[in-house]
Amino acid sequence: MGLRFQGRENRGRRQAMNADVDTGGVIVPITDGEAILRGEKREISILVAREEVTITHARYSAGEQVAGPRLHYEHTDAFYVLEGELTFELGREPETLTVSSGGFVAAPPGVAHSFRNDSGRPARWLTIHAHDGGFAAFMRGARDGIEVEWDISAVPARGGLPASEAIVSPDVGGAGWESGHRLCSLKCALPDLCVVEWHLRGPHPDLPLHHQDSQVNSFFVIEGELEATLAGTRHTVGPDTLISVPCGVQHTLNHCGSGPARMLSLHTPDGDGLADYLRRVSE
């Protein structure tokens, strides 16, 4: 196909989320996201909105068109499928592919993309804009009836970059490295976005508290239960929950249970060179 594969509701709630950001971190179950759209066939919520990254959760019924052809010139638009499947068209001569639960797609700047739910069942996914590119303001404006300009463009006559510039990791897991009870798979390695999927099969000892001065660290728990320490406070975090930690805030994330767990780790931007490190240790 020519695609580059990497590995195999209200204003009060918005103010509460911003207050959480100011105090050092956000822990948001998908049920508590900021409502953008609540309909019988479509639901969209903002889980976190920062300058470095905006992450939304969406659920669309079978057969629903999600987004028509567009491209972004200054930021990456990425998607992780949590349930069901999505059909994407990517590149200047659109190439079509279907990505199921556990699959990931990223359209870097200049790559045209559109997607829909062609299946006979609902689909749920995360959308990741890195950096934000004005997306959060656009979504809130659409909800509130306010027109907002942001980094989006119609596909030009020449069609933008080819589909080979997109990043596609169609399956759960994929190429990666294993250490003790941990298996990790590098899903995406771009300057503005590094995404790693972690499979934790048993207890992992406490890691030292640490912080990054040059990036936002976000984690989405897909299954199992983890313990997060943010700015000195411990939290137990279950499935379908986002943790987002701004620059300079001490944090650690541990797997203390005996059962398996799975999560995504997102670095925006990849300020500590995680992608290069994972490539080196997997060689």
Write up this protein:
The chain folds into two domains: about 5-170, Jelly Rolls; about 175-280, Jelly Rolls. The protein contains three helices and 22 strands. The protein has helices spanning about 10-20, 135-145, 275-280; strands at about 5, 25-30, 35-40, 40-50, 55-60, 65-70, 75-85, 85-90, 95-100, 105, 115, 125-130, 165-170, 175-180, 180-190, 195-200, 215-225, 225-230, 235, 240-245, 250-255, 260-270. The strands form four sheets. An eight-stranded mixed beta sheet has the order 1-13-10-7-12-5-4-3. Strands 2-20-17-22-16-15-14 form a seven-stranded antiparallel beta sheet. It has about 280 residues and is mainly β. The longest helix is centred in the first third of the chain and has 12 residues, at about 10-20.
Oligomer: single chain
Overall geometry: globular
What portion of residues belong to β-strands? 35-45%
Number of H- or I-type helical stretches: 3
Residue runs with pLDDT of under 50 for 5 or more positions:
1-23
What is the C-level CATH assignment of the largest domain?
A: Mainly Beta
The N- and C-terminal alpha carbons lie at a distance of: 26 Å
Written as H for each helix and E for each strand, in order along the chain, the element string is EHEEEEEEEEEEEHEEEEEEEEEEH
Would you tell me the overall average pLDDT? Answer: 85
Largest sheet: 8 strands, mixed
Which percent range fits the helix content?
Answer: 10-25%
Total count of strands: 22
Strand arrangement in the largest pleated sheet: 1-13-10-7-12-5-4-3
Name of the CATH homologous superfamily of the largest domain: Jelly Rolls
Q: How does CATH name the architecture of the largest domain? A: Sandwich
Our Rg estimate from Cα atoms comes to: 18 Å
Q: What would you call the structural class?
A: mainly beta
According to CATH, the fold-level topology of the largest domain is: Jelly Rolls
Number of domains: 2
